[in-house]
Amino acid sequence: MKYRSKPDNQSYFKPDKTSLADDAERMISIIEKVASGDYSIDITEFTGSDRPDATRRIAEAFGMMMVRIEAREYHLHKDRVMPPSFFPGTAHQ
Fold it and tell me: Could you give the CA distance from residue 36 to residue 3 in angstroms, rounded to a whole number?
């Protein structure tokens, strides 16, 4: 049996799916950015069918946490700018 040689620019092994270990470093970097207050990070790349189940579940859970934290921060900021007592008829409720 003869083996064909591949051009230098092609990989001999390219997995169909990425592994959890492959995703870990990128996810850690994203988590660190979010921890510093950057909620503009897009994690949808980790939710595709080409990702391991564990990666998808972590990304989906993390995405929900991001949404909840961002919403809390929005409400905290809004209450600081216009506290409830600012609105007529709402003080002491």
Answer: 51
